[in-house]
Amino acid sequence: MSLRLDVVLLSGRGASLEVDASSTIDALKQRAQRELGVAPGTLVTSAGVEVKGQATLAAAGLQHGDLLSLHTKRVQVASSRTGGFSAILGDGSVACWVSRSCEDCSAVQEQLHSVQQIQASDCAFAAICSDGRVVTWGNPAYGGDSSAVQEQLQNVTHVQASARAFAALRGDGRVVTWGPWRWGGDSSAVKEQLQDVQQIQSSRGAFAAILTDGSVVTWGSSAGGGDSSNVRMQLQDVRWIRASYAAFAAGLGDGSVVTWGIWGLGGDSSRVQEGLQDVQEVQASHSAFAAILGNGSVVTWGDIYAGGDCSDVQEQLQDVRRIQASFRAFAAILGDGSVVTWGRALQGGDSSAVQEQLHSVQQVQASDSAFAAIRSDGRVVTWGDSSFGGDSSVAQEQLRDVVHVQASERAFAALLGDGRVVTWGHPDSGGDSRAVQEQLRDVQQLQAMSSAFLAVCATGGILTWGKLSIE
């Protein structure tokens, strides 16, 4: 008996196939992949059930006229702080969910094929295709228009973004930039120095590139760390760079750290320079840095009201494994699973109200002014400003078997082990998901922007909630 089955990709492109009911699922999948010209993937029924193997179509319960989805790879989602979301679908095409302030990708849709990665500024996106091309969209004032440098955007391997500009690293080690100059979109002043670049990092308004020889080249707003001339001679054998809002911290091969940028936002580490030895990792809040040393202790600098001073909890900061930052506070997970916090109390720097619950902690996530900790038993503990998700009491009974938490500016979303999602915090930031709750089933991943969330379901469905329309 012959069956007609419709197989579609997540982009909507599909093929109608006439097959024998005695054919196997694997044979159907291989034929669909050939017809659609895509890489191997998985077949999913309209009910969200994956079908595979040597079972016949009849045995799998497939009937004439059934619709199946072909997922060729995991959906990759990029979020822009205020612009929305863009997702690389299983077939390498792109779908967008953007705010009113950000143009969608419809004007460049035909160019968006075989996309490998997407990077986002605050309100624009840049996609790298498999052939090294770059395609951009979004608000032109945020880097959404790359037409002035399009011919140079060839053989691109990586793209980095500041708040309103982009920097693309090419395979030949050169860098191409675009967007407003005051946000790092013009690198012409250092063009000759930008050769043999290995990595690029960004603050809100500037970029820093690590060259093959371990030196660093910076450009963009001098108020954002774009001028490193005062420390240029110290920037040798640089291995990594981290950034706060307007400052940079570079880790050297000998374990020391060099900083520059706005001194009050972490650009001046002279007060603790002697202690910055054997640095293993650095985390940044808006205007301060926290470094984990090889012995598990912590050194902080920057705005003392944003976590730059941890003296009150210094003795507790031993055997530190990981650090998370909100806008003006830090939370450190210790080796025994307990948590130590410091910084502005109302923004998560004071966890005393829930301290007894902070044990066996596996990970911590932060909104702008609150924290959420996942324990090994799958429960969640929150603290900080209640209007930013610091109070999860309304959802606490549902917060069981939590495997991951994502945060927007003022809300949280927790993914449970059974694929359901629980939200709390400010409704305008995605803290209220009731409008899509019935559809939030078999969720595989969550992503967030400042005021909304996006969920990718096992069926290939993609849902958003919160406030995508930025007024």
UniProtKB/TrEMBL annotation:
Family annotation (InterPro entries): Ran_GTPase-activating, RCC1/BLIP-II, Ubiquitin-like_dom, Ubiquitin-like_domsf
Segment forming the signal sequence: none
Pfam families: RCC1_2 (PF13540)
Domain Ubiquitin-like: 3-74
Stated name of the protein: HERC2 protein
Species assigned in the record: Symbiodinium natans
